[in-house]
Design a protein that fits this description.
Helices cover 8% and strands 41% of the residues. It is globular, with a radius of gyration of 15 Å.
Length: 167
């Protein structure tokens, strides 16, 4: 589990700026695994009717591996597999039950991309809401690996992921 941007080639000043900039939020009842030193990348466990809704986790996009290499395809039914990411996922989302509707939206000041692998397959997205990616719909119980990418290799940008059951 990678919980620090420092292992991604991102300097401490960027990590401190993210913390100081208010991107750190800890859900009240959603469970997240956090680094005791610095919480930049989080893993989260959610069940239906989670609180607070929305729940947010954060990180830094980017890497040097093409999204097509991670997704093993150029596009999916949810969108193109674009951008550059790390080999390892940025987050792991564990869902304890079936969600009739769950929305995962990336919020970033820069244009980011998304790859999710989990029960039932792989999904990519580029522009769900403006320039930010996201995926919404039914989700099976299980573990999902989440990668957030940037359009240029080794280009890193802060982001938040918003998870909500509200349509």
């Amino acid at each position: 589990m990678r919980n620090s941007g420092l292992g991604r080639g991102v300097g401490l000043p960027i990590a401190i700026a993210i913390v100081a900039g208010g991107l750190i939020t800890t859900p009240a009842q959603a469970q997240s695994a956090q680094s005791p030193l610095l919480s930049i990348f989080e893993n989260i466990k959610l069940g239906p009717k989670f609180s607070p809704d929305p729940t947010r986790i954060q990180g830094i996009s980017g890497g040097s591996v093409a999204a097509t290499s991670i997704a093993k395809r150029n596009d999916t039914v949810t969108g193109p597999c674009s951008g550059y990411m790390d080999t390892k996922p940025d987050h792991t989302l564990s869902l304890t039950g079936f969600f009739d509707y769950l929305s995962l939206e990336v919020e970033s000041p820069e244009d980011t991309t998304l790859v999710i692998q989990g029960p039932g397959g792989t999904w990519c997205n580029d522009d769900h809401q403006g320039k930010n990616p996201g995926i919404a719909g039914q989700w099976l119980a299980g573990t999902y690996k989440i990668w957030i990418g940037s359009y240029k290799p080794a280009s890193y940008h802060p982001y938040r992921i918003k998870l909500s059951e509200v349509r």
